[in-house]
């Protein structure tokens, strides 16, 4: 079986995000970018399935700017077998929306015929949490989102999902789409020798036009703003003082 | 807050040193700047995720020696170093022929800076092992490489360097560890070693099963005496676990950790008294005496070990630079956040201002910035010399790089160690009372950094190495070539926005040249050596001022570069003349004062 893993290049989780002065979005110029952490978990899970002999080939796909090939190299260095880059934007500030991504992935899936798609539950830049679900709808495949545990049993996958208030285990028919949650696994570091070897692994480059998908935005960003800064705290001398301050502030 | 600032590191590595140009050399053919960045990304992640979180916990829970004679490290240190080895970082600069990635030392040094900034003590394990394995690869026989370097490359063993003894630290000629011939096998000439090695970093550890010690010892004469001086020193490979070929087969060697030293800082790594040949716990082949295999020829020990020491010396400077850098970043952040006092120009201002508004605090930030960036630049520049000395296209280029590397090694070891500590002192100062507490990081940076002027040859020993061997020894030729480049940079600065930097740089270069001349020409060769440490500091200041200027002149350099260079020129460079004056005047106060006057 073949597994397809979509990976997104996003602002690094360690970077202190700054909103652009005109409020049109987040400043991404000269900012450190890396693989979406949920996608890293998906790559790790795919590699583990391969190591366990359940999967023959892991194919990573990224959609975005040309620099996303660095992200694909990371996936290859972790252990993916080959990669497909779909260049869909020139400007790092242009985000490709979930629907366009899902449509492109659907086309890739038509060609590649994987038995399983493992994707991150959401990307940490826009927190959309939509691509996997949309892809499922487009393909008419089953879906199991927010996976905490994945087991492949013949032509079914048994997936434990993180849901409000606990865990839920579902059995879905393959081919299927599974999205990964934080606790599914702890991704490995791509080792230095594997980083160097990954250069020799195949990386196909395509464009959105090759698949005939329109990636023009359908959503309009009205405004992007920093969260309000926290006000400085204040020391109080007694419980009475605290209560009266809280009353003053109108919160009790 | 991250331990390193990648933008600064990338600027130095790519924009200033042009690391990607190294790919034009045959050794690095096929590599690219992307490879180097991916390597640095990995090092940075390991630094942040593995090494940094265990930095503080492993400071308060030192390594312990169990009743079973085994050393137990803080588990976080164990995991961090394990992650480093699993990620194959120890292979970065190793030859492809030995399974390595053959990346430039320049880039390997930048990656190590990230690890060191996060956890200097834990970084000691891979740092020592890499230098150890490189010595074996360079001087060992193929069988020695397979038995003793390969396990280190594969992450199954770590390496140490065993030079110092309780009675012989600075003066290695006086070591008394003894080696008796004990046959030969496919790994070479075998010896039984007995003696005590003091201060051995990483000698006891529970990260990898095996530890490969590189041990300096003296082969005893037929009459049982030991040869005198450094020419009598030989080098031996002494593994903790013996290979199959040893008499009695595989099993533990006759080594014992006799005690641990309790250090001021740098606590994540064990520091051990290592006894060889006690014969109490283990007697390989039924006899007392640690089994070791000779590397190279008898009497070559110190010369060979110098390769490891020189690499380790650059790394000591690098560690000191990394700690200075982290202290600078922490105190800069703090100064922008903490509000205290009113500005000088408006003493009645209604509200306190951030510390960074006070000129004295700004002084401390700029001074730290210049030291941290200057020290880091010095280490990366020296690392590139090591690459060029080994791999440059022509023999002439290689020998030029070699001469410069030789000249600068004592400076690269000691300047960051001495002044990085001054930077950490200022990082504490900017934090005020908070900086003195263990709730903040800067006091530990200072304690960790305090080791660096001591190990791998104290500052005093580095001063002697520079002035006696490298200046007076070669008549000042290597220094003259260096100062020619310093002056060329001053000329370039004079033509642009760095014009204000040029005269000071020229003056300082002139003062250094003059002092070197008076030292070389002095009637009494001892007098100048009494000023060797001052000369070392002065030389370091000139070199750092030069590098700061050179970086500031890079097209598109961040403007902070020029300000750091200016501050260093204005406030630090004048010290050069003061340091050198006593040598020029032939001051003998320290020499002639009677002991009772001390
Ligand atoms: C934490 C730590 C880790 C270490 N790790 C290792 C290790 O892994 N392997 C190893 O082999 N060693 C190691 N060392 C040993 C270290 O290299 C020595 O401590 C150092 O070389 C100084 O030797 P010493 O301590 O005997 O001091 P001394 O040699 O007694 O020196 C004391 C002082 O006298 C000065 N002095 C001595 N001789 C002269 C001279 N001829 N001229 C001018 N001044 C002189 C020195 O500069 C110094 O200021 C380590 C030391 C420490 C503290
Ligand atoms: C161990 C310890 C014991 C102490 N014991 C006592 C005690 O018994 N009683 C007591 O009352 N206090 C005590 N203190 C407090 C001590 O006096 C203060 O820590 C000290 O005055 C500095 O204040 P701060 O820590 O708030 O630093 P800050 O005032 O925040 O200073 C931080 C840095 O900014 C600089 N700075 C601040 N304002 C200016 C300015 N206007 N111009 C230029 N530079 C400026 C400072 O020089 C310093 O480098 C103690 C502190 C310590 C650490």
Walkthrough of the structure:
The complex is a heterodimer of chains A (252) and B (598). Chain A contains six helices and eleven strands. Chain A has helices at residues 37-51, 68-78, 98-112, 131-139, 192-198, 239-248; strands spanning 2-6, 9-11, 33-35, 57-64, 82-87, 116-120, 142-153, 156-163, 166-173, 176-180, 203-207. Chain A has a nine-stranded mixed beta sheet, sandwiched between helices. In chain A, helix 3 packs across helix 4 (131-139). The mean pLDDT of chain A is 94. Chain B has 598 residues and is α+β, with helices and mostly antiparallel strands. Chain B has three domains: 6-153, Orthogonal Bundle (Butyryl-Coa Dehydrogenase, subunit A, domain 1), CATH 1.10.540; 158-298, Butyryl-CoA Dehydrogenase, subunit A, domain 2 (Beta Barrel), CATH 2.40.110; 458-592. Chain B has a five-stranded mixed barrel. In chain B, strands 1-2 form a two-stranded antiparallel sheet. In chain B, helix 8 packs antiparallel against helix 11, helix 10 (395-430) packs across helix 16 (532-552) and helix 14 runs parallel beside helix 18. Classes of the chains: A alpha/beta (252), B alpha+beta (598). Chains A and B meet through helix 2 and helix 5 of A and helix 2 of B. The complex binds flavin-adenine dinucleotide (2 copies). Residues 160-164, 169-171, 199-201, 263, 266, 271, 451, 454-458, 460-461, 464 of chain B line the site of one flavin-adenine dinucleotide (FAD).
């Amino acid at each position: 079986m073949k597994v397809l893993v979509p990976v997104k290049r996003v602002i690094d989780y360690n970077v202190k995000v700054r909103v652009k002065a005109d409020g049109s979005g987040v400043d991404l110029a000269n900012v450190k970018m890396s693989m979406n952490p949920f996608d890293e978990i998906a790559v790790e899970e795919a590699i583990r399935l391969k190591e366990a002999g359940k999967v023959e080939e892991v194919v990573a796909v990224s959609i975005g700017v040309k620099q996303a090939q660095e992200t694909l190299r990371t996936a290859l260095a972790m252990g993916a077998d080959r990669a497909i880059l779909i260049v869909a934007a020139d400007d790092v500030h242009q985000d490709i929306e979930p629907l366009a991504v899902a449509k492109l992935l659907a086309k890739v899936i038509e060609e590649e015929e994987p038995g399983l798609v493992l994707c991150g539950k959401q990307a940490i830049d826009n927190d959309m949490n939509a691509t996997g679900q949309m892809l499922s709808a487009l393909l008419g495949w089953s879906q199991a989102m927010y996976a905490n545990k994945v087991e492949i049993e013949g032509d079914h996958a048994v997936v434990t999902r993180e849901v409000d208030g606990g865990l839920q285990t579902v059995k879905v028919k393959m081919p299927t789409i599974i999205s990964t949650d934080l606790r599914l696994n702890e991704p490995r570091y791509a080792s230095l020798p594997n980083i160097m070897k990954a250069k020799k692994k195949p990386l196909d480059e395509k464009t959105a036009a090759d698949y005939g998908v329109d990636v023009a935005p359908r959503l309009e960003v009205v405004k992007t703003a920093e969260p309000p800064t926290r006000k400085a705290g204040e020391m109080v001398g007694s419980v009475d003082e605290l209560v009266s301050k809280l009353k003053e502030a109108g919160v009790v | 807050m991250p331990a390193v600032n990648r933008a600064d590191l990338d600027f130095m590595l790519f924009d200033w040193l042009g690391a990607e140009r190294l790919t034009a050399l045959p050794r690095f053919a096929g590599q690219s700047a992307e490879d180097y960045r991916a390597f640095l990304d990995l090092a940075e992640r390991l630094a942040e995720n593995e090494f940094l979180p265990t930095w503080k916990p492993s400071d308060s829970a030192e390594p312990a020696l169990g009743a079973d004679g085994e050393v137990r490290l803080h588990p976080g240190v164990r995991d961090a170093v394990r992650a480093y080895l699993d990620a194959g970082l120890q292979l970065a600069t190793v030859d492809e022929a030995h399974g390595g990635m053959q990346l430039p030392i320049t880039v390997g040094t930048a990656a190590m800076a990230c690890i060191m900034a996060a956890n200097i003590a834990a970084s000691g394990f891979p740092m020592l092992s890499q230098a150890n394995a490189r010595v074996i690869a360079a001087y060992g026989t193929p069988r020695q490489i397979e038995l003793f370097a390969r396990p280190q490359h594969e992450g199954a063993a770590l390496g140490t360097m065993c030079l110092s003894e309780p009675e012989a630290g600075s003066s290695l000629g006086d070591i008394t560890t003894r080696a008796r011939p004990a046959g030969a096998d496919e790994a070479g000439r075998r010896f039984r070693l007995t003696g005590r090695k003091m201060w051995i970093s990483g000698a006891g550890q529970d990260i990898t099963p095996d530890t490969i010690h590189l041990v300096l010892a003296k082969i005893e004469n037929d009459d049982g005496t030991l040869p005198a001086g450094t020419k009598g020193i030989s080098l031996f490979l002494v593994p903790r676990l013996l290979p199959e070929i040893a008499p009695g087969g595989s099993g533990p060697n006759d080594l014992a950790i006799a005690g641990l030293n309790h250090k001021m800082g740098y606590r994540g790594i064990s520091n051990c008294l290592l006894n060889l040949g006690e014969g109490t716990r283990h007697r390989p082949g039924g006899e007392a005496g640690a089994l070791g295999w000779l590397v190279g020829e008898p009497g070559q020990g110190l010369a060979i070990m110098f390769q490891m020491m020189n690499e380790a010396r650059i790394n000591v400077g690098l560690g000191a630079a990394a700690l200075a850098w982290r202290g600078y970043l922490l105190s800069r952040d703090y100064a922008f956040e903490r509000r205290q006092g009113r500005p000088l120009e408006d003493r009645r201002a209604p509200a306190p201002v951030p510390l960074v508004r006070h000129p004295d605090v700004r002084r401390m930030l700029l001074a730290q910035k210049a030291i941290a960036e200057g020290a880091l630049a010095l280490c990366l520049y020296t690392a590139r010399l090591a690459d060029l000395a080994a791999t440059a296209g022509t023999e002439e280029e290689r020998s030029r790089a070699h001469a410069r590397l030789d000249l600068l090694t004592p400076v690269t070891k000691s300047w960051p160690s001495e002044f990085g500590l001054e930077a950490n002192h200022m990082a504490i100062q900017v934090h005020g009372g908070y900086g003195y507490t263990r709730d903040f990081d800067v006091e530990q940076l200072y304690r960790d950094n305090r080791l660096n002027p001591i190990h791998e040859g104290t500052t005093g020993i580095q001063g002697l190495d520079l002035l006696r061997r490298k200046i007076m020894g070669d008549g000042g030729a290597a220094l003259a070539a260096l100062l020619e480049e310093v002056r060329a940079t001053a000329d370039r600065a004079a033509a642009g926005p760095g014009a204000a930097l040029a005269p000071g740089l020229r003056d300082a270069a002139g003062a250094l040249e003059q002092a070197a001349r008076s030292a070389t020409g002095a009637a009494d060769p001892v007098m100048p050596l009494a000023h060797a440490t001052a000369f070392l500091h002065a030389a370091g200041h000139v070199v750092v001022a030069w590098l700061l200027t050179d970086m500031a002149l890079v097209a598109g350099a961040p403007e902070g570069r020029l300000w750091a260079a200016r501050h260093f020129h204005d406030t630090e460079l004048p010290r050069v003349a003061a340091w050198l004056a006593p040598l020029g005047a032939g001051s003998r106060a320290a020499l002639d004062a009677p002991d009772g006057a001390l």
